[in-house]
Amino acid sequence: MARVRTGVRVVGAVLATVLGASLVGCSSTGGKRAEDRAKAAAAGRPAVSTPRWTFAMVTHAGDGDTFWDIVQKGAKEAAAKDNINFVYSHDDQAQQQAQFVQNAIDQKVDGIVVSLAKPEALKDVIAKAVKAGIPVVTVNSGSAQSAAYGALTHIGQDEQIAGEAVGTELTKRGRKKAVCVLHEQGNVGHEQRCAGAKKTFGGDMENLYVEGTNMPSVQAAVQAKLQADPSVDAIVTLGAPFAPTAVKAKDAAGSKAEVDTFDLNEAVARDLKAGVLGFAVDQQPYLQGYEAIDLLWLYRYNADVLGGGRPVLTGPQIVTAAESAELEEFIKRGSR
Question: What is the pTM for the complete model shown?
């Protein structure tokens, strides 16, 4: 983390020098316009004068999932800056998610952001959007299918790479037997995370499928696994809301297994700081929402596309107790 902050300071110093030199050569009007844009963005007012386009975001989020609250926060703040009418809908059932995309097409929106947890179910409707001339950006899940489906780009972490980072971290920590808890069957990203972790982990890892919409059931399944196999010394959950449940299961089973998780929220940050959790994998959901909206705006305004045909990665970053303390301010405000 210290290396990252040092890099930020160096880049900041370079940018300050460049901007300072530029402003000397610019007219006072140009400088004032830049200042006005910054003030408008900070106040939640549009910082641009482009038309008020409508962008729809459709995700596979379930009710109460704090991860998607952060994605949505980033998207809303980018929309406010870019003078965008932002419409959000979500459902953890792929069929309903596809219907929401169809609704957006019928309403002739100016851009669509969509997550592809179950890509095959959305393939046809995304093709309809592209055929209708609506630019599409995929986010969070489905990086492997994004380009083939006709999306401009994909914003998110590479789930295989993220999983590999987890396997490497578990090995560093001396863990020997791990369980990867999958809470949404059929989610390709979740399968990739566990596969990546298994690939780089120096010990044994197996998958445990649970019913993610039923937390008592999740706790019971993890607890039963730990009681049946005391040699398990690591539990990896694939979403922040499941980490505290895994901790409860571990305590009830009398296990000393370390609980680690994908994604951050305030509860995970608190438990990291207290040593209740070992580490978390942050994919920066705020960036996923913010950049998806911003990139659609850039495309509509200037035909800009980032990524060069490859996903724009927002993670992974391994967060431990030390990093959690440094990010605490941002986590509390709901942007990390």
Answer: 0.79
